[in-house]
Write a structure and sequence with these properties.
single chain; 806 residues; mainly alpha; 3 domains; globular; DNA-binding; TSO1-like; CRC
Length: 806
DNA sequence: GAGTTTGAAACT
DNA sequence: CAGTTTCAAACTC
């Protein structure tokens, strides 16, 4: 083992050295290069920029870097790929990966006795790297010197990154696919390095590098002042770094704690502690820098952190496991992961799941228990529902999201309402956790789809808010950002409840066994209030209902999925609930309105409180929530979709700038979005048809497909691009989740802003790593992406369906 | 509450 | 995949 590891280690190092970055560093003076900052041009270059160019012109990169870095950071969670992509870039990720790897190794190693490694690492890392990191964060000035050195190194890396980013975006899906392998390799390398004590050093370097990069980025993005960089460094970066650095600490702490604690409890504690530590870091960061951008960045960071955390948690969890009892079965580990993830996203989700599964009772659980319960439960249900999957599910079913997002509070409320109606439980059939999570969740869940559609937006926003809150809380930052107004949530929930309560069908010929029937479509049994005739949608005819459902699903797996899809994760940044507005959601299929101008409930988009998207084939769209052209809702009123398109085309250049801005601005941006603000919106339109067709698996769609769907949706709307223009102007921020996707989509799709009217530009349904998509937080979208597809070619649109690119 | 309009769902 | 029919909600009166 050791020998090979050493070799590997060497390789990584060599990579770094070999990497253009290194050369770069060597050639360049370490001093901050530069931050020439952001010239929008860079963006253009970015879009076009080939990696090589990047290498050649570090300066340019730096500019990008700031933004990109942030983005990357945001994306980081998902990014393992990035790291892989560019080994050089890996610094931050690499660290994380290393940590993960360590964790991974740990379990196995633990048996072998390797377990020691982690401890070793931790101490080292703590002593060496972490401190340095903290140092940096706290006192940038002091650190400067080191930073400078580091920066020099990072610079090159950063420069590289931009290119990688572009590629990444485009080829995310592919990369993700491959990312596994790459990650494994990287991890292996990192692990090796770590395993060696050199790892400690490496770690330190890595961390320092990361920090530097981050700092650098921030500095670049914000200002020329290099020194300030330290101060200004994005909280996010800090947090990110901190998280990275913390990992070791956390691990150590966790180990200690876990040892003291024991099994599950230790887990929780570990997590909490981690969160605390993170929060601390965050706090430090905040203290150091609280630039306006901070909030957003912090949020992003949080997201990222959360991701990292998830990883860390996993690690910790594993460690805890080992230390405690070695509960150690992989299952347990998986459970923990899940738990962690859930926690990250928010307990509410967990609750929802519970609720759905167990029924109302579960949902009612007091918060106090919830945590424990959740964890316990989590394993069961979700088992299927992996966090990612959950998200996916959520994405699929807004309903589910709504319910989940809302958490116990809402859930409780809703359930009663729903309770009246019995959801059609596919459970028996089962398999279905997946299905459940995906489309069918609604059934189990008391929540009616109606709510979903109608209230989805609300819920979504709420959910996001809750998620944010949860995340923030974890970080400790929540206070600042959390604005989540429980009140609003409650209102929404109540409203939703009302809606549900009111829901009833009036079917006469369909026997309530077709999607015409709202009850059936919602996965609910008809109830008294329904005035349907010859209704078969009753528990008595359960078999019939289930069969029918299956048939329908076989035709269209997403038939029972919520029609309105929310961007899911996009977590509104600080309390901007405004972001949560319905706008964030999109109708999965899009409407086909011709006479209603999408201003009446005939329009499903309008009904769902979401704006029309590219996927819509509506004519004369005036959807107040957002036009299909991409105009954001608020703006929508004006219509002129075409204009938007034109703008888009024009914007391309400007977009770049905007995009860049997004990073910082978005923080500020916090779009006050009215409900209409689509910023938050995911743009997503579900391509729905995964491949134009319907995925074969009906109920099974579930997780996998669902997740995919979800992601794809996000990506899907190539039209997205069209919106960009406005976005740029109005919203610069885009949820990370979306952004990457969007970017991908845009890149891949090449945007076809050209035909706003074009009725549906079929979004590429790529299913990029679904899991990641929801994950974290938001990333700023690089709006910079020019509408021109031309860029795409570089980017490997190949990943994405070529169709999009057009 | 009846009739009309509308667009999704279902069918061919 | 496109066109048509069926259906039930949304809307109007």
């Amino acid at each position: 083992m050791d020998t090979p590891e050493k070799y590997q280690i060497a390789t990584p190092i060599s990579k770094y050295e070999d990497s253009p970055v290194f050369n770069y560093i060597n050639s360049l003076s370490p001093i901050k290069p530069v931050k020439s900052i952001p010239t929008d041009q860079t963006f253009s270059s970015l879009s076009f920029a080939s990696p090589s160019s990047v290498f050649t012109s570090p300066h340019i990169n730096p500019q990008r870097e700031s933004r990109f870095l942030r983005r990357q950071q945001f994306t980081d969670p998902s990014k393992p790929e990035f790291s892989r992509r560019d080994n050089d870039e890996n610094t931050s990720e690499g660290v994380l990966d290393a940590v993960h790897q360590l964790d991974y190794l740990d379990p196995g190693s633990s048996d072998t006795g390797i377990t020691i490694d982690p401890s070793n690492k931790d101490p080292k890392s703590d002593a060496g790297l972490p401190q340095s990191l903290k140092y940096d964060c706290t006192s940038p000035e002091d650190n400067r010197i080191p930073h400078n050195d580091i920066e020099t190194e990072t610079m090159p890396e950063v420069a590289i990154r931009p290119a990688s980013h572009v590629h990444f975006v485009q080829g995310v899906s592919k990369e993700r696919r491959q990312s596994f392998e790459i990650e494994t390799e990287l991890r292996g390398i990192c692990q090796i390095g770590e395993s060696k004590e050199a790892a400690g050093c490496d770690w330190g370097k890595l961390i320092s590098d990361d920090t530097d990069q981050l700092i650098f980025d921030s500095s670049i993005s914000k200002e020329h002042s290099e020194v300030q960089d330290h101060k200004t460094v994005d909280p996010g970066t800090y947090s990110f770094i901190a998280t990275v650095l913390q990992l070791p600490h956390d691990e150590i702490d966790d180990l200690q704690k876990s040892q003291s604690m024991g099994s599950v409890d230790s887990y929780e504690q570990c997590e909490t502690e981690e969160t605390v530590t993170k929060s601390r870091d965050v706090g430090e960061i905040k203290e150091t820098d609280q630039t306006p951008a901070v909030p957003s960045s912090t949020l992003l960071d949080k997201l990222v952190v959360s991701d990292s955390r998830a990883e860390v948690d996993d690690k910790k969890g594993k460690k805890c496991m080992q230390s405690s009892c070695k509960l150690g079965s992989q299952q347990q580990l998986s459970i923990r992961r899940r738990c962690l993830l859930y926690e990250m996203t928010g307990a509410h989700k967990k609750k929802l799941i519970y609720n759905s599964d167990s029924g109302s009772s579960a949902s009612s659980q007091s918060d106090g228990k919830v945590s424990s319960d959740e964890k316990q439960f989590m394993p069961f249900k979700p088992g299927n529902i992996h966090p990612s999957s959950m998200l996916a599910g959520i994405g699929l079913h807004l309903n589910a999201l709504a319910t989940t997002a809302e958490d116990g509070n809402k859930v409780v409320k809703h359930e009663p309402l729903a309770s009246e109606r019995k959801p059609i439980s596919m459970s028996r059939s089962i398999p279905s956790l997946n299905s459940m999570s995906l489309g069918q969740t609604p059934l189990n869940k008391s929540l009616t789809p109606d709510l979903l559609e109608r209230d989805l937006v609300r819920f979504d926003s709420e959910v996001q808010a809750t998620e944010d809150a949860s995340q923030t809380s974890e970080f400790g930052v929540s206070e600042e950002f959390n604005h989540g107004s429980p009140k609003r949530k409650r209102r929404r929930s109540e409203q939703a409840a009302e809606n549900e309560a009111c829901k009833r069908c009036n079917c006469k010929k369909s026997k309530c066994l077709k999607l015409y029937c709202e009850c059936f479509a919602a996965g609910l049994y008809c109830v008294e209030p329904c005035s349907c005739q010859d209704c078969f949608n009753k528990p008595v005819h359960e078999d019939t209902v289930l069969q029918t459902r299956k048939q329908i699903e076989s035709r269209n797996p997403l038939a029972f999925a919520p029609k309105v899809i929310r961007s899911s994760d996009y977590v509104p940044e600080f309390g901007d609930e405004s972001n949560k507005t319905p706008a964030s959601a999109r109708h999965k299929r899009g409407c086909n309105c011709k006479k209603s101008s999408c201003l009446k409930k005939y329009c499903e988009c309008f009904q769902g409180g979401v704006g029309c998207s590219i996927s819509c084939r509506c004519e004369g769209c005036k959807n107040t929530f957002g036009r299909k052209d991409g105009t954001e809702e608020a703006e929508l009123d004006e219509e002129e979709t075409e204009e938007t398109c034109d703008k888009n085309s024009l914007d391309t250049s400007s977009q770049y700038d905007v995009v860049l801005r997004g990073e910082e601005e978005h923080s500020d941006l916090v779009p006050p979005v009215t409900p209409s603000s689509e910023i938050s919106r995911p743009l997503v339109q579900l391509p729905f048809t995964l491949g134009g067709g319907k995925p074969p698996q009906s109920s099974l769609l579930s997780v996998g497909s669902s997740s995919q769907m979800y992601t794809s949706q996000k990506f899907g709307p190539s039209g997205f691009i069209c919106r960009l223009p406005k976005f740029e102007k109005h919203l610069e921020m885009i949820p990370e989740d979306e952004t990457p996707e969007i970017l991908q989509g845009t890149l891949a799709g090449g945007v076809k802003s050209t035909s706003p009217n074009s009725k549906r530009v079929s979004p590429p349904h790529h299913k990029i790593g679904s899991t990641r998509a929801w994950r974290s937080g938001r990333k700023l979208i690089l709006r910079s992406i020019p509408s021109f597809p031309s860029l795409n070619p570089c980017q490997e649109s190949s990943d994405r369906s070529p169709g999009k690119t057009q």
